[in-house]
Input
Amino acid sequence: MSTYDQAIKKYDPVLGLETHVELSTNSKMFCGCSTEFGADPNKQTCPTCLGLPGSLPVANAIGIESTIRIGLALNCSIASYSRFARKNYFYPDMPKDFQTSQYDEPLCSNGYLDVLVDTDEGTKTFRVEIERVHLEEDTGKLTHAGGATGRIHGADYSLVDYNRAGIPLVEIVTKPVPDTGEYAPLVAKAYVTELRDLLRGLNVSDVRMEEGSLRCDVNLSLTPKGSKTWGTRTETKNVNSLRSVERAIRSEIERQSLELDKGNKIKQETRHFQEDTGTTRSGRSKVVAEEYRYFPEPDLVPIAPDKAWIEKLKKALPEQPSIRRTRLAKEWGFTDLEMRDVATLGGVDLIAQTIEQGTSPASARKWWAGELSGHASKADLELIDLKITPTDVARIDALVNEGKLTDKLARQVIEAVLNGEGNPDEVIKKRNLAVVSDDSALIPAIEAAIAANPDAAAKIREGKVQVVGVIVGAVMKTTGGSADAAKVRELVLKTLGQ
Amino acid sequence: MSDLTKLSAVELSGELSKGSVSAVEVTKAHLDRINSLDKSVQSFLHVDNAGALKQAEEVDKNRKENKKVSALAGVPLALKDVLTQKGIPTTCGSKILEGWIPPYDSTVVKNLKNAGIVILGKTNMDEFAMGSSTENSAYFPTKNPWDLTKIPGGSSGGSSAAVSAFFAPLGIGTDTGGSIRQPAAVTGIVGAKPSYGGVSRFGLVAFASSLDQAGPFARTVLDCAMLHEVMAGHDPLDSTSINQPVPDVVKAAQLQDVKGMKIGIIKELGGDGWQNGVLNRFNESVELLKSMGAQVKEISIPHSLYALATYYLIAPSEASSNLARFDGMRYGLRVDDGNLSAEEVMNKTREKGFGKEVKRRIMIGTYALSSGYYDAYYAQAQKVRALIAQDLTNAFKEVDVLISPTSPTTAWGLGERVNDPMAMYLADLATLPPSLAGIPAMSVPIGLADEDKLPVGLQIIAPFMNDDRMYRVGGAIEASLKTKWNGLLIDQAPALGGAK
Amino acid sequence: MSRITREEVAKLAELARLDLPESELDEYAKQLEIILESVAKVGEVSTKDVKPMSHATGLVNVFREDVTKESLSRDEILRSAPATEDDRFRVPRILDEE
Output
């Protein structure tokens, strides 16, 4: 029996997830600096987000509104009176040495999100309860220089870019999720997937895990079967892809169970997920014990959203992802299983946008869930992060239907687009990939093939049409597969008087 | 003494608009006086000779081209070194900010520049505005122009000394618990703390965010009101800025009439432990107000007895967080031998860069906000603060303004209280309740104490966003005393050495 | 009122990132104790049902529109930095992991 199976036999895991979402506002949370990703270091900074002496924050209205909308979409109650608080601790990536966050008066609290997971007894719904949704500011970005690993440990010094400092960050904290048993890793992954789709539907964030606009911390504890008291939990940071969410929990379940089996106690600590090994490692313990000295931020005034505003935001919420998926599956003729696969891949919107451009639902699914998901998993990327758009896919599909691309050529075009060689038409032109269906271009090849195969030609002239394959095959060979076989067949027969 | 430095801002404004004198001449006269006499007062940390003259030239050019200029255009001013001015060093009286050149203007400075007011330089202060004597400046102590062995008050002691030494007719200070009013009182000038939110805090290096407020110093109530008007107004860069019209303080300062006004004497502020000379002058002012037709009565602000304790929890708590950013990572001092970790560099930089009073307050604040103490200290202080504000609101149901002596004593000797923080804190006793409530208050000179012949101030407190009321009372008292003394109290100040 | 010990002063200093010299701990302890004794007076006031007052204005919902403004020039912000490299602020090695 595997370590995991043994662990699950003895212990019940209790999950918790803290998700940080960077909002896609135009400007930062408390100043007018741009939030655009990828700018040159320290180009998007001002006195406020650099925490210069004398600077003051003013809250971004869309940051507040987006947080409330997220809360509403997660079935939370919205506070009638909410405040920002200062979380005080020293760290070089934090310009003021306190983070403007929320403490005991968050904007949203007590919600839930239902997620579906395939179990041995069929598809099951798990309800993940939401403790709170609050708004805070992001920190600057550190680059560690010197040392072997590029990591903080062993570095000689560090460099700070404050472009990210002050970008609005929404933290979504679940309540502890018990009773998921062996499915704990899958429930966690399904939760983050569902949350990502919900946030994308709300259009509040780019939700790109590899750019860090969606980040996950995973809490886990094990309770011996039959026991009523939960075990000590660990918090694992740096869990920054859907696959990692699943892997981190699985490995932490294994690690904790082995510790408990040995009679050791679980240390309450922060751990770090390591992508390369798929395991977690212990963080170094803090020099100073945590003591954040939260107090209401005196430079900002309270938020008191009025009921009419909340009602308005509630009415304008988009369809919940799960409801939308059910509707779309019906419209598109997908089975539940097909739809869930597509959802897990993050492909629902991509397929919808491809269909909007005229592609049939079955083809759209074939391209995204087949060909492209293969590329994504090879590159360890999300579908949406591939460098190909629904418009590109729809164009390729149309060219195939028009007979201008074979499936084989289409795959080459896709590869080239993913390589950044341009859009499908540009790639076809550059690489000369189109199906040769122009008669005049084919005629010399056909004539050459007939001359090379006089016996077969004679038989066809006599009416033995079935041997045409010999000549078509020869033509296809000389044209390197770029010819349309049906067209070639037609022309060969025509040339030979049939 | 050059005649130009003797003039009030209003008088200078008149001469400038008549064209009988240029802004450059006015500025030069004040710079000359500073450059020859400030070595004995030490009110400035940085004198911007070139910059000030350039600003003055600009004003003269605009006047010559008949462009519209404001009433105070060309009038010089001394700026407390806690407000940022682009390109000019801002130290907050601390070594930790030595060498920092702010890349932006505070809103107050922006307003001054728009009005054509000439900024002569940055004045000394208690480090990060923590103190009542300006002795906590990391650079040097400032002296009281009335007596160079005495303190000029604090924390805005550099500005109060500069204005009372005739280095500038106008000055700007900031007031968290009394840091404009007390220095004004002990140097015999006028100083006002506007309603909280009346003047933008953008660019004011924070001590205690919920209490800090910048305000004007001047030698006359009208000058003070005119500067107040320039500084104040809504600022979208400050979330706590009030979006309402600025009260008409200039008109109120000119009324010179308190007939029918109801004035309350705060019962708790006075009595045992208060200097006799201070109380004598205060009692005379009460009689004066009565004689001018005001109805005066005693009124109790019971929770004001807890103002000191409340303030010395709230202000240090906010300060402990506001001053965290001075960590040697991005600007200012960094103590590093090249082998230290970031954490050690922060520890050593802050130890070396901050003075003792700042460190004491940071630790008190850290204590009061820590889990286990938060409820008993910080949260409780915020509740008592609400009660003090409520007492004051209740009082204003009965009276138009409240009055008290500004400070329990006149200026004390340099060095007398430096090793006794609690004695230093007591200087703020009367100024703290309005600070905690966020309401406007000002100090006007009401004479010299019998014992030491040093200035005494009267504190006038008005309801929130009714700053005009205190100017009305202040203007009336000033007019009446001016007649009695045949001039301003400041005219009785001894001329500084070399200026005789 | 609890007495402030040397150890407590050391702990406060650590939290506040102040590398206080050992020799000054006793003096600080004495001064902090006097101050804390005095401010503890707030505990004498009955504050049942009193809402804490964190600021004086009574303002709520002060927001700005989500529009971008020009940022500072990078040269200007890096000019005041104690050390820079590659257009970034250079800081010493960090021990604490966050």
